[in-house]
Design a protein that fits this description.
Jelly Rolls; mainly beta; 168 residues; binds 2-oxoglutaric acid; single chain; 4-stranded antiparallel sheet
């Protein structure tokens, strides 16, 4: 098998570092989502997120929350490229259902811990209202054998920024 590396939809831009910061007091929440909404593959099930805590992530400073088993319920929506004439834009196909808040299970971790995120599992993080920052480093792997990286994904590999094969 072969895996490829791609950057993260929630990172600070196409070329920005895939580091996620929840700043103290006003770190923004990350609303419930599935990563395959942003990084779609055909078939699904080929995407794995790696989320490495650079600082302790707690209930107070914005740890991740997951709905157990939600990776088996399909994909709610997709973010796709759209064109108005030659102008490139993005829009959602489908919509994120309102999720029962009681289904989410918190995943507090210590600095250095790694969380593996299935591409279809529903997850979120709450606003950081604490005194402590919460840095994480995240990126995604795709199993590339017999997988199509959807051509209408917002993120496309280029000659300058290709997806890096990890092994052959
Ligand atoms: O770090 C966060 O607060 C959210 C991260 C996330 O949703 C992701 O890595 O898919």
């Amino acid at each position: 098998t072969q895996s490829g590396l791609c950057s993260h939809p929630l990172s600070s831009g196409l070329t920005g570092p895939p580091s996620l910061l929840q700043q103290p007091h006003f770190g923004g929440e990350v609303v419930p989502h599935q990563d395959s909404t942003f990084l779609h593959t055909e078939p699904l099930g080929r995407l794995l997120g790696l989320w490495i805590a650079l600082e302790d992530a707690t209930l107070e400073n914005g740890c991740l929350w997951f709905i157990p088993g939600s990776h088996t319920s399909g994909l709610s929506r997709r973010l796709v490229r759209t064109y108005a004439g030659s102008k490139l834009d993005i829009s959602f196909l489908g919509s994120e259902p309102v999720r029962d808040a009681s289904l989410f299970v918190p995943t507090p971790v210590r600095r250095g811990d790694l969380i593996l995120i299935h591409g279809e599992v529903v997850h979120k993080s709450d606003q950081n209202l604490s005194e402590r920052s919460r840095h994480a480093y995240t990126f995604h792997l795709m199993e590339s054998v017999d997988t199509v990286w959807s051509p209408d994904n917002w993120l496309q590999p280029t000659a300058e920024l290709p997806f890096v094969p990890l092994y052959k």
